[in-house]
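Ops channel
N.P.: pipeline sanity check, posting one input/output pair.
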Protein backbone atom coordinates (compact mmCIF):
# COMPACT_ATOMS: atom_id res chain seq x y z
CA UNK A 1 0.00 0.00 0.00
CA UNK A 2 2.86 2.39 0.70
CA UNK A 3 4.12 2.16 -2.89
CA UNK A 4 0.78 1.60 -4.59
CA UNK A 5 -1.47 4.30 -3.23
CA UNK A 6 -1.38 7.70 -4.91
CA UNK A 7 -1.22 10.21 -2.08
CA UNK A 8 0.17 10.81 1.38
CA UNK A 9 -3.02 10.09 3.33
CA UNK A 10 -3.82 6.72 1.81
CA UNK A 11 -0.20 5.63 2.20
CA UNK A 12 -0.30 6.69 5.84
CA UNK A 13 -3.51 4.73 6.33
CA UNK A 14 -1.97 1.57 4.88
CA UNK A 15 1.16 1.74 6.99
CA UNK A 16 -0.74 2.53 10.19
CA UNK A 17 -3.15 -0.33 9.68
CA UNK A 18 -0.22 -2.67 9.11
CA UNK A 19 1.55 -1.61 12.30
CA UNK A 20 -1.57 -1.68 14.46
CA UNK A 21 -3.11 -4.95 13.34
CA UNK A 22 0.18 -6.76 12.79
CA UNK A 23 1.51 -5.75 16.19
CA UNK A 24 -1.68 -6.79 17.93
CA UNK A 25 -1.63 -10.19 16.25
CA UNK A 26 2.00 -10.69 17.25
CA UNK A 27 1.20 -9.80 20.86
CA UNK A 28 -1.77 -12.17 20.93
CA UNK A 29 0.39 -14.97 19.53
CA UNK A 30 3.07 -14.26 22.14
CA UNK A 31 0.48 -14.35 24.93
CA UNK A 32 -0.76 -17.72 23.70
CA UNK A 33 2.77 -19.05 23.38
CA UNK A 34 3.91 -18.04 26.86
CA UNK A 35 0.77 -19.38 28.51
CA UNK A 36 1.48 -17.55 31.76
CA UNK A 37 -1.24 -15.34 33.19
CA UNK A 38 1.31 -12.69 34.15
CA UNK A 39 2.81 -12.57 30.66
CA UNK A 40 -0.64 -12.53 29.08
CA UNK A 41 -1.78 -9.65 31.25
CA UNK A 42 1.32 -7.64 30.37
CA UNK A 43 0.83 -8.34 26.68
CA UNK A 44 -2.81 -7.26 26.92
CA UNK A 45 -1.65 -3.94 28.37
CA UNK A 46 0.96 -3.54 25.63
CA UNK A 47 -1.69 -4.36 23.01
CA UNK A 48 -4.02 -1.73 24.42
CA UNK A 49 -1.21 0.82 24.41
CA UNK A 50 -0.34 0.10 20.76
CA UNK A 51 -4.03 0.09 19.78
CA UNK A 52 -4.46 3.56 21.27
CA UNK A 53 -1.18 5.23 20.30
CA UNK A 54 -0.60 4.07 16.71
CA UNK A 55 -3.80 5.57 15.27
CA UNK A 56 -3.30 8.73 17.31
CA UNK A 57 0.21 9.21 15.98
CA UNK A 58 -1.05 8.63 12.43
CA UNK A 59 -3.73 11.25 13.00
CA UNK A 60 -1.13 13.75 14.21
CA UNK A 61 1.13 13.04 11.22
CA UNK A 62 -1.82 13.46 8.83
CA UNK A 63 -2.85 16.68 10.52
CA UNK A 64 0.62 18.12 10.27
CA UNK A 65 0.75 17.10 6.60
CA UNK A 66 -2.57 18.81 6.01
CA UNK A 67 -1.52 21.98 7.78
CA UNK A 68 1.79 22.15 5.90
CA UNK A 69 0.13 21.54 2.56
Amino acid sequence: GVFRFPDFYTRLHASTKLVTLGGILIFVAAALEFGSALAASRLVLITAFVFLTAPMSAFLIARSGYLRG
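N.P.: looks fine end to end. The chain is about 85% helix and 0% strand.
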